Design the sequence.
């Protein structure tokens, strides 16, 4: 209620009291007074008639009237003064440029509806691109300082691969306007001339129409922050604004690979293959040859100290620590021995493990083979405790390359997080960690001779230039608020990480992405003399899939080659310092549009023809590819000159045409992320050694399932743990793969891109448990559909009984799968994909907690549409809530 309204009420109350001194009732709308009974006057009773006239002889009435006039005069004067004060205050607010503290501002996103795409389309991307979502942003001022009429802007990012409908925004909003900043879906909202200050306790509702349906909880707008704008247009960060998200409304999905929305019923159908009584596989990955006699066991307390040669010291220490953790006495004088040996007759990663009355004997073709055998022992101890069964295992991987790629650029993850990743990889016998060290969004490794790369390129924030116009940091992108996730691996960090990984038989392959995805380096060195890497006069029009038009090194610029020499020299030196000679390096080579460089004067000066793609697209592509090929040969020469000369160069499949000569020398390989198995097969036919990185089953940044409680991307579909397990790497086409091409498949690699991953806990959630079936398939890739179906129950039993409890003990924030449920004979029938998890439920519509009733399949509750379910670990961590009716 305004001051004017209060004053008017006061005036009326005074008048009421003066006119009717015997009583006056004031009722509020919220608490109405009872209505009075109205009856006709009694004809036999004298009725007093009230008129405007005051009887002249009534001295009391005259006195009352004089008092009333005095009160009214005083009230009118007070009201005028208050009005004048309020008008002055309003004028002061209107003229104020003070920006409120963002902690007093609050946003709420309310999803109203999804709008369907076209009825006919060729691909789900077309359907989604032509669908829309409607929502509202509600901005509330909870503080005392008004948000002024001008001098500010609200920045935010609309969801992945989504755009704001600016035309609809202009139609729906009169007091604010929105514009695209040119960076990755980042928009800003500013007040128009019609905007009035947003005062205390006031709210502003902003309708928003987005291009593409909202499907997952990572889709709504993110990264809201406020800036102030001075009279010269200079912007300064004020701070981030907290936002509250409402529920996501339903959508109409397109066909495969998007598919139907996952719900309780579909999960039940998917999980029901596991019957809850299967015998777990012996270890993960499953050993290839096992003979186990559970009727005979050896007591760990009977084992003597571990015997090994000096070159197995790390493995010996690891096994000693492991055994001591599971036995009461550290060593025994008994005859049973524990021996570790290297057997040159075995394949490099092969191991043989024997447990019998003589003790434990483990031999490997190398230290790596012995290490893998120790991981199997570790898992056997999880299962059997301090009494190991008699057994013999002869095991080795089918693929020599069992990899994981981690992007530490989009969001930064430092040494501590990466070591935890390495620990999980090592335990499940993976051996390659490809680290994406640079991206458009950030540069994440120290190059001592080029400090600008990390001093500028590792930082993100709203203000990107200083007063002199020099670049000081990169712009905010992705989920960033006003200050992005800064950080980088120092030289010491990287060397330490190499040593840590080597001890666990994991090779770290550094990825320096060129010529595309290089914006962070380009911007960081933009003002450094001699290191200009783009042509300022280039008129070529191109856009990367991530929305950048200035992220590709120009081979004609003099700064490109000194930059590459400095970087690869430093990387090689760090590997030497760690005692881990550089054996492989990855150069990216992906997503560089073929329209790049086509209209660059610097390129023309080198003797290449400028060809406009709009005029002659075929010739333009041919010229671009010639430039790209020449650049690639110079790059390989730099890599050889700054290293041993025997480094194997990896690149994504887009770079395949430009690595043919190096392939012939046996010093190159391709990481293949193409969906098309026929295209992959065709490249294998050319003799290219290949690592398969199928996005459908190997991209862990994809959402687990099609449900609004999930987050991630879905451009390649949805990928849950079972999808990964069902992956058959050698089944590229419907026809059997010839042995020659089969031998060119080095292995498989999973990818963890971090556009939607903000924290270490979130990274673990995306990665696990999907990494477990991937490790299984990297070790045992040659399976049929029948094998997959038959072996899944044993795999699921191992994961539920041993792998997930182990992860929980280690403090790993893995994703807990949601229950499935159906109605059967009027009863609730619920299931989870792994044993060891319990289901709790509620019947009142609330979210289940650890104290909620435990679902008992032997005594299920009556089915009720209001039932909600959650799966819980023994330690009390829960899955997302599942309504039985969605």
Sequence:
């Amino acid at each position: 209620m305004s001051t004017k309204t209060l004053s008017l009420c006061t005036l009326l109350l005074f008048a009421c009291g003066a006119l009717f001194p015997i009583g006056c009732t004031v009722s509020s709308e919220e608490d109405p007074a009872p209505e009075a009974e109205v009856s006709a006057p009694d004809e036999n009773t004298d009725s007093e008639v009230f008129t405007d006239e005051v009887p002249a002889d009534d001295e009391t009435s005259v006195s009352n009237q004089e008092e009333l006039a005095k009160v009214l005069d005083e009230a009118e004067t007070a009201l005028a003064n208050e009005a004048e004060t309020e008008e002055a205050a309003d004028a002061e607010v209107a003229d104020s440029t003070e920006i409120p503290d963002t902690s007093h501002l609050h946003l709420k996103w309310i999803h109203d509806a999804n709008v369907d795409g076209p009825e006919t389309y060729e691909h789900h991307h077309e359907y989604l691109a032509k669908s829309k979502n409607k929502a509202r942003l509600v901005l509330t001022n909870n503080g005392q300082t008004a948000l002024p009429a001008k001098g500010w802007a609200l920045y935010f990012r609309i969801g992945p691969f989504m755009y704001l409908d600016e035309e609809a925004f202009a139609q729906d909003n009169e007091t604010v306007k929105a514009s695209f900043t040119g960076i990755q879906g980042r928009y800003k909202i500013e007040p128009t001339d019609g905007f009035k200050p947003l005062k205390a306790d006031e709210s502003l509702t902003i309708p928003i129409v987005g291009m593409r349906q909202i499907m997952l909880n990572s889709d709504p707008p993110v990264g809201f922050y406020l800036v102030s704008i001075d009279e010269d247009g200079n912007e300064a960060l004020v701070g981030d604004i907290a936002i509250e998200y409402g529920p996501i409304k339903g959508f109409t999905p397109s066909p495969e690979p998007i598919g139907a929305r996952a719900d309780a019923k579909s999960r039940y159908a998917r999980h029901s293959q596991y019957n809850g009584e299967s015998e777990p596989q012996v270890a993960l990955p499953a050993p290839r040859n096992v003979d186990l006699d559970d009727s005979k066991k050896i007591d760990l307390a009977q084992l003597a100290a571990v015997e090994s040669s000096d070159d197995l010291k790390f493995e010996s220490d690891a096994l000693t620590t492991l055994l001591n953790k599971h036995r009461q006495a550290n060593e025994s004088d008994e005859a049973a021995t524990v021996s570790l040996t290297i057997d040159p007759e075995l394949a490099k990663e092969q191991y043989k493990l024997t447990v019998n009355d003589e003790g434990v004997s483990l031999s490997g073709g190398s230290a790596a083979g012995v290490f893998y055998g120790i991981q199997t022992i570790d898992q056997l101890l999880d299962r059997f405790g301090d009494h190991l069964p008699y057994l013999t295992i002869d095991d080795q991987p089918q693929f020599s390359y069992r990899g994981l790629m981690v992007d530490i650029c989009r969001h930064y993850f430092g040494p501590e997080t990466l070591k935890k990743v390495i620990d999980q990889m090592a335990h499940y016998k993976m051996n390659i960690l490809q680290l994406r060290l640079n991206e458009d969004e950030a540069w994440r490794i120290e190059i001592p001779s080029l400090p600008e790369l990390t001093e500028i390129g590792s930082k993100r924030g709203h203000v990107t230039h200083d007063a002199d116009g020099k670049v000081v940091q990169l712009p905010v992108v992705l989920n960033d608020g006003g200050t992005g996730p800064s950080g980088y691996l120092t030289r010491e960090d990287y060397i330490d990480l190499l040593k840590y990984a080597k001890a666990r038989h994991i090779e770290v392959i550094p990825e320096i992405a060129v010529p595309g995805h290089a914006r962070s380096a380009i911007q960081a060195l933009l003002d450094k003399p001699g290191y200009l890497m783009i042509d300022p006069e280039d008129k070529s029009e191109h856009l990367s899939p991530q929305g950048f038009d200035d992220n590709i090194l120009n081979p004609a610029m003099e700064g490109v080659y000194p930059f590459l020499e400095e970087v690869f020299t430093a990387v090689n030196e760090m590997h030497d310092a760690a005692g881990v000679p550089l054996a492989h390096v990855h150069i990216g080579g992906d997503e560089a549009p073929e329209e790049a460089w086509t209209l660059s004067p610097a390129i023309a000066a080198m003797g290449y023809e400028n060809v406009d793609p709009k005029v002659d697209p075929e010739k333009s592509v041919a010229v671009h590819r010639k430039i790209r090929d020449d650049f690639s040969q110079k790059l390989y020469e730099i890599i050889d000159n700054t290293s041993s000369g025997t480094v194997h160069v990896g690149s994504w499949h887009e770079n395949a045409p430009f690595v043919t000569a190096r392939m012939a020398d046996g010093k190159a390989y391709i990481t293949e992320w193409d969906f098309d198995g026929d295209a992959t097969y065709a490249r294998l036919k050319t003799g290219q050694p290949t690592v398969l990185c199928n996005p459908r089953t190997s991209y862990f940044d994809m959402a687990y399932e099609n449900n609004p409680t999930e987050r991630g991307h879905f451009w390649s579909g949805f990928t849950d743990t079972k999808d990964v397990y069902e992956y058959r790497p050698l089944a590229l086409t419907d026809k059997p793969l010839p042995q020659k091409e089969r031998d060119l498949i080095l292995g498989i690699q999973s990818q963890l891109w971090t556009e939607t991953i903000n924290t270490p806990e979130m990274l673990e959630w995306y990665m696990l448990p999907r990494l477990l079936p991937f490790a299984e398939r990297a070790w045992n890739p040659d399976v049929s559909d029948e094998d997959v179906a038959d072996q899944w129950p044993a795999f699921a039993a191992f994961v539920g009984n041993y792998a997930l409890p182990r992860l929980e003990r280690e403090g790993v924030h893995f994703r807990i799968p949601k229950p499935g449920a159906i109605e059967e004979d009027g009863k609730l029938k619920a299931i989870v994909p792994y044993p060891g998890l319990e289901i709790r439920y509620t019947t009142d519509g609330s979210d289940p907690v650890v104290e909620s009733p435990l679902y008992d399949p032997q005594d299920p509750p009556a089915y009720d549409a209001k039932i909600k379910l959650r799966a819980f670990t023994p330690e009390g961590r829960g899955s997302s809530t599942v309504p039985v009716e969605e």
Remarks:
- The domain at 431-644 is CATH 3.20.20.80 (TIM Barrel).
